[in-house]
UniProtKB/TrEMBL annotation:
Originating species: Marinobacter oulmenensis
Record family assignment: Belongs to the ABC transporter superfamily.
Protein name: Glutamine transport system ATP-binding protein
EC number: 3.6.3.-
UniProt KW S-adenosyl-L-methionine keyword: no
């Protein structure tokens, strides 16, 4: 298997706060890794380091063969990494003055110098793929939250990424809209997209993940197949966390 992400002894600080502590983690091509843990445990910071939105202090981070330097180092690989890594956030971050179609077309035209004709065809194909092809000429404000998040996914896919990062993509959605976004993510997983997903949706994690990672106070304290982590957690911290979240 091809390794898409490698972290070795990676540490991240915010001032004096030690947010990520000696993280060792690899993600293989085609693997779906779901990261769970309490708020403030470092989950989002971890995946934000993968595409350089956060700089780590020391250790090693390699993304699709490109070494990403620690804070203060030469980030010559950053542009290449961002061409190959798509990211979907809690908030949709769509341009309100652009139509849905143009939101999706923008990145390949700007970053990959894709022609307008090709970018338009790509946008139409991807919007169909996420189930909102009929919304292409509307503006984001005219869509529901679930529809806007599907536009954000299409926009990330327009870069033809080798890795997709999802940072709690359903947390800003009303309950009835969560399912439509998770359905798109399930389809990506079935198609073999390499994914790192931070989520509180435990049912989704159990169903889709190849591996579940539990982070507590910046450390990976348990990881394994979903059935092992959810049904037979070995670490008492994992047990306590799951007893809280699965009882609601």
């Amino acid at each position: 298997m091809t390794q898409i992400v490698e972290m070795k002894g990676m540490n991240k600080y915010f001032g004096k706060l030690h947010v990520l502590k000696n993280i060792d983690l690899t993600v293989e091509q085609g693997e779906v890794v779901v990261i769970i843990g309490a708020s403030g445990s470092g989950k989002s910071t971890l995946i934000r380091c993968v595409n350089g939105l956060e700089e780590y202090e020391n250790g090693k981070l390699v993304v699709d063969g490109h070494a990403l330097a620690p804070k203060g180092g030469n980030q010559k690989s950053l542009a290449e990494i961002r061409k190959e890594v798509g990211m979907v956030f809690q908030q949709f971050n769509l341009f309100p003055h652009l139509t849905v179609r143009k939101n999706v077309m923008l990145a390949p035209m700007k970053v990959k110098s894709t022609s307008q004709t090709v970018a338009n065809a790509t946008a139409e194909r991807l919007l169909d793929r996420v189930g909102i092809g009929n919304q292409a000429d509307k503006y984001p404000s005219q869509l529901s939250g679930g529809q806007q998040q599907r536009v954000a996914i299409a926009r990330a896919l327009a870069m033809e990424p080798r890795l997709m990062l999802f940072d709690e993509p359903t947390s800003a959605l009303d309950p009835e809209m969560i399912g439509e976004v998770l359905d798109v993510m399930r389809e990506l997983a079935r198609e073999g997209m390499t994914m790192m997903v931070v989520t509180h949706e435990m049912g989704f994690a159990r169903e889709v993940a190849d591996r579940v990672i539990y982070i507590h106070e910046g450390q990976i304290v348990e990881q394994g197949k979903p059935a092992d982590v959810f049904d037979n957690p070995q670490n008492e911290r994992t047990q306590a966390f799951l007893s809280r979240v699965l009882s609601h």
